[in-house]
Design a protein that fits this description.
Distance between the termini: 28 Å
Helix content: 40-55%
Radius of gyration: 14 Å
Shape: elongated
Largest sheet: none
Number of strands: 0
Length: 68
């Protein structure tokens, strides 16, 4: 089964960093710290990219419920 990139339900803002952490099987806190470091300490346009990714990345679908 192929793994898909979704925004995470474990979110602080939009779920982008949490979704990237789930996709790459990393700790979400480390991904958030690395993203914040890149956004603040470099020329990396982090806020603009985060907003674009929040719009483009789909939300994780809810699992189907089975009524008995």
């Amino acid at each position: 089964m192929t793994q898909k990139l979704y925004r995470s339900e474990d979110r602080l803002l939009g779920g982008v960093c949490g979704g990237l952490a789930e996709y790459f099987d990393l700790d979400p806190t480390l991904v958030r710290i690395a993203y914040a470091f890149l956004a603040v300490c470099t020329i990396f346009p982090g806020i603009i990219l985060y907003i674009i990714m929040c719009i483009v990345m789909p939300r994780k679908p809810f699992p189907p419920t089975h009524n008995v």
